[in-house]
Amino acid sequence: MTLRPDDLPAFEPTLGMAMLGLLAGAQGAINGAWAQDAPLALPELDVSTQAPSPFRRDAQPVVRLPTTVAETPQSITVVPQEVIEQRAASSVREALRNVSGIALSAGEGGFTGDALTLRGFSARGDFFVDGIRDLGQYTRDPFFMSSVEVLKGPSSVGFGRGSTGGVINQTSRTPQARNFGELSLSGYSSGGMRATSDVNLHAGNVGFRMQAMGSHIDAARRDNVYQSRWGVAPSITWGLGGPTRATLSWLHQEEDNIPDYGVPFRNGRPLAVPLNTFYGIRGLDRETAVTDIVTFRLEHDVSADMTLRNTTRYGSWSRTVNATAPRLATTTSTGAVFNPLTTSLEQTLVRREPQVRNGYDNLVTNQTEMVWRPVTGPLRHNILAGFEVGRESSEAVRFAFGAATNGRPNASALNPNAYASLPTVYGIGSDVKTTANTFGLYAVDQIKIGEQWEVLLGGRWDSFDADYTNRSAANPAQRNFSRLDEAFSWRTALVFKPWQSVRTYASWGTSFNPSAESLTLAANNAALPPETNESFEVGASWEVLSGLRLTGALFQIEKTNARTSDPAGNLVTLDGTARVRGFEIGATGRILPNWNVMASFTHLNSEITRSSNPAEVGRQFINAPPNTANLWTTYDLPMGFQIGGGLSYVDYRYGNTTNTNRVPAYTRYDLAAAWAPTEGALRGLRFQVNALNVTDAKTYETVYVAHAVPGTGRTVVFNVSARF
Fold it and tell me: What is the CATH number of the domain that holds 445?
């Protein structure tokens, strides 16, 4: 079995749909402007005050909580659509450069797609779309999103299992009661193009909206590596503006990439080779993924103080991977035994380890929620209560090669042959399937006591029943495992507002991580109950200037019964302890009338305080940089001009729990300039140019136990967009 990619980009269908959407939107806008029963709805502006900063989403509701972003006693960072577009972010991973406390990572345990750590803990399984878990292993694209929200700290009280370091929620753009459209086209200096469209049509109480995307981008200075994908996201809402609303939406995305597994470690550091060195095999290495998410949401306003909503979702995610993971070979090019201390780079060989697998994930879930704002005497409540029931499944087949050739020829460390001869035969290494039935019951109450005090109380009970089958296991004892976990999570917080512009809070909460959290089990963990986590956080926000908000928090997250294994990796027990202590500060909003800023800094002190493996005790977590910082700022000039820039700083990180493999710190600088003519024939157009990694710094985007993946080099992006 051999996988071979098409050399042609895979985004042609969406370019056509984008143009059709533009034409349809233009026709709809013209009809809507002239129709007597469908006037163009424009937002009301108070000309006596300045419009809020586009970087702030203070009034945006927080999913699974009865509070807004500004009111939540928890560190939350919202990356709005405006910032995503200004930074020319073509993926959610790029958008998350605006969030400190996050570090990108490679998919561990055979996982692919987006993976990261949040406050030092893995958040690979903590992605959500509109408050419902996003199971897929794929590259998430922001073309259909109005914002990306990062809720930091354990959040099982709202989201169920996982969420030790927090969750990442992606909020979809929904139909609006007006007609508008936008078409955007970008070209990349590294090679490639990206096109997106967003069209909204409105008639009566029905709104239809559709986003489309096509993207093929070569990775700058990473030979043979590219990402190619296309997608559509139509949605329709009945009952806009009325007490009862129904929305049906569909997200479809396909991608076809050449994956990048970077370089191996040597003497605990990434192999010192040129940035463009690629150890994969062109014509063989390939990664494909297909995502489908269909959602139906029904909402009804019972009264001005009560809303009921029910959401049903079906999701499917399929993927195939044929990739090359680089490892140092045991012999040199001269046939001698490799010595990491004395063998020269010219004689070093890299073993090409095949990573060949395919898989399929599936989700069917139903969620019912009530938002209620009663008043009991002097107390004002904001209550969110609900329950959800669902079924998740995951199937994965991994292929194995003969031990003699390992399926791929060794490569020269300095001059690998990307067109090496291809393997011909391999067999199935494992064929596993996991299904899990989930049920959750939760309630959170924000209680306002006068004008200065608030109390937040929340609790959730979860049942997580997983069955695992390894259909390729020869030993019957290794073939079937099951695990039922029932857990209660809670959160409490006290808020004090000494002045109108200042909010302070103290919060305390828990979360849990079952053994089958990522829909996989094994003989050495199937009998183990969930890991439990406890979090403390003290924080404050201050409206220091009109429009500029400063935030800060001190926090501790402790996993008190972490899974830990002996040095041989055989016996797994729950007698480990892991702890993160840290702080973060941030600023978001307007410094001056034309000057917007979004900045944050996070410090983490991670430590494995107890483990069955003595070599881990006292060590830092995998992929938990002690310091991270981000900045994005723009300044609006006369005549529609805008300039902007920012940075992303990531401190050193370790690739393993014994801290022997480490990647260095880096700082990446980005610049942007834009012009949106305010009059004349070009009015309605916007021209933008971005310089990403403008200093061509050597960065390491992801880190894994045995390899690290360099980031892309300097990339210039030219964009033109039209709005109507």
Answer: 2.40.170.20
